[in-house]
Amino acid sequence: MLQNESEIDLLNYEIKQQKVLAPFSGFVAKEHTQIGEWINKGGPVVTLLDLDKVQITVDVPERYSVLLAPQGNVNVSIKNVSNSLFTGKIYTVLPQGNPDSRTFPVRIHLANPDHKIKSGMEAMVTFNLATEIEALLVPKDAVVTAGDNRLVFMVNDSKAISIPVKIIGYYDGDVAVEGNLKPGDQVVIRGNERLRPGQPVVVQK
Fold first, then answer.
1. pLDDT-derived band of residue 40, with 50, 70 and 90 as boundaries?
2. Residues 179-199: pLDDT tens digits?
3. What pLDDT digit, counting tens, does each position of 10-36 carry?
4. 106 near 60, Cβ under 8 Å?
5. How far apart are CA 81 and CA 122, in angstroms?
6. DSSP letters along 81-135, please?
7. Which element (helix H / strand E) includes 43?
8. Would 53-127 and 136-194 be classified into the same CATH topology?
9. How far apart (Å, rounded) are the C-alpha atoms in residues 26 and 29?
10. What's the pTM value of the predicted model, to 2 decimals?
11. CATH architecture, domain defined by 136-194
12. Is residue 152 within 8 Å of 142, Cβ to Cβ?
């Protein structure tokens, strides 16, 4: 009797395992399996699209990318959907640019509650660059990644001082940052990955 109950429990467990739950509500763009087909553990079942919010990627010239900041509003035109402008928000300016075209990818998020905007549609994005911002530029090699944080090591009294910074853009091989730095501060651009706060530093010219 106990053996039969164990077999029933095992069968019920296997039946539950056959049900695949989507991680979010969306539209099936592609089916990777057919009814009755066996799939390997972790294998794809369907490609699912979430159209509640769409992402637009635009390549922006580097001289303008330094003027863009996350959460900034942009105007988006999608003529096949509406003659009116949509309002999107800058999600991020990717730090890896294209050295040939000298552009940086900018990702924009746009609300799409009625699902009229479809994946693959053409969009035109207008950025508001009228407002100038002041930013401190440091060499790209001066910025050190520490987990989710960015640091710049400043030299003070021949010792390394770690300064947390926020990257706000890129320009001609330099990085625009916000942090407790001022023009004229000496920063470390070589060997800074191995530096520790307070470690002695020898400045070479």
1. confident
2. 999 998 999 998 888 889 988
3. 777 776 766 777 766 766 767 777 777
4. yes
5. 10
6. T-SSPEEEEEEEE-S--BTTTTEEEEEEEEE-TT--S-TT---EEEE---S----
7. none
8. no
9. 9
10. 0.50
11. Beta Barrel (2.40)
12. yes
CA 184 and chain centroid, separation: 31
Residue type (1 letter), 137: L
Would you kindly state where each structural domain of the chain is located, as residue ranges?
Answer: 53-127, 136-194
Compute CA 7 distance to the chain's CA centroid, rounded to the nearest angstrom. Answer: 48
Rounded to 5°, the CA angle 77-79-81 comes to 100
d(C-alpha 39, C-alpha 108), whole Å: 36
Distance (Å, whole) CA 118 – CA 110: 12
Question: DSSP 3-state assignment of 28?
Answer: strand
20 to 27, 36, 46, 48: CA distances (angstroms): 15, 14, 10, 13
User: Reduced to 3 states, what is the DSSP secondary structure of residue 3?
Assistant: helix
Encoded tokens for 73: 């509003």
User: Beta strand 53-61 with 103-111: parallel, antiparallel or unpaired?
Assistant: antiparallel
Number of CB atoms found within 10 A of residue 125's CB: 18
Q: Locate 111 and state its tokens.
A: 């609300």
61: its two tokens: 């010239």
Query: How far is the first Cα of the chain from the last one, in angstroms, to the nearest whole number?
Result: 85
From the options 3.40.50.1580, 3.60.15.10, 1.10.10.10, 2.40.30.170, give the CATH code of 53-127. Answer: 2.40.30.170
Alpha-carbon Rg for the chain in angstroms: 26
